[in-house]
Amino acid sequence: MTREDLRAHLVRTRIAGDVDTSRENNLDHYRALAEREPYHLFGLRPEGNWDERDVLELMAKSAGVVADPGHRFGQDTIDPDLTIDAVEAMGDTIAGALRVGSPRVLIATGHPTGLLAVHLVLARLLEEHGAELLSPAEGWSYRNPRTGRKNEIRYVGGVGMAADRGNLIHTHDSVLMRAMLAELGEERPDLVIADHGWAGAAGEAGVLTVGFADSNDPALFVGEAEGKIAVTVPLDDNVLPRHYAPLTNHLVERVVRAL
């Protein structure tokens, strides 16, 4: 698939372009980050002031949302060219870790109904090229402060996720990644591929981290701006899993070509 074909696919499936996330939701989350609400920080501790206007300016630059602060309602966007550029930068970073030889890699997602499809392919790719996939703190549990229910860490195909009994669940929580890193101790991973709080906590801990983030999840973009996240890919993180296949293929091809 050419870059132009991929761009058209991203817009057609609303992974980028006119995305489903509303402007109101985006601005609400930018305000929440500016007010340092923990749920929206993803385990990161921003060093800058980052008021709501600063966050909007960053998201316009890094994700392609509408830059006009007067646009308060309705449609918002992700620039598909920024998505592709970031995917290629992510591929280069993954290839760089693989070139070192037998890297220890931790993969996790807070989106089992969407981005898991991407992470499973990356897990296979990494193993095929000599990486060791880590699975620390499997079965570790905690009481989810938002639901009051006990959640635990489970791995499927080398990808860590949060589980609520028999269900894999969506989560922003960073405590899960902190538990993983705590069990690993000084034997930290060489690379983390993740999203939400899994990525934020790893980046805050100083681990080389690449991740995916929606237009209403500004924390990882702030982390990238502050040098804590190596690459953040802007995309709608909850479309039908099969729609991510061309983007995933482009990422895999970028990794392989860079090796």
Automatic annotation (TrEMBL):
Pfam families in UniProt: Phosphatase (PF15698)
Name of the protein described by the UniProt record: Phosphatase
Originating organism: Streptosporangium saharense
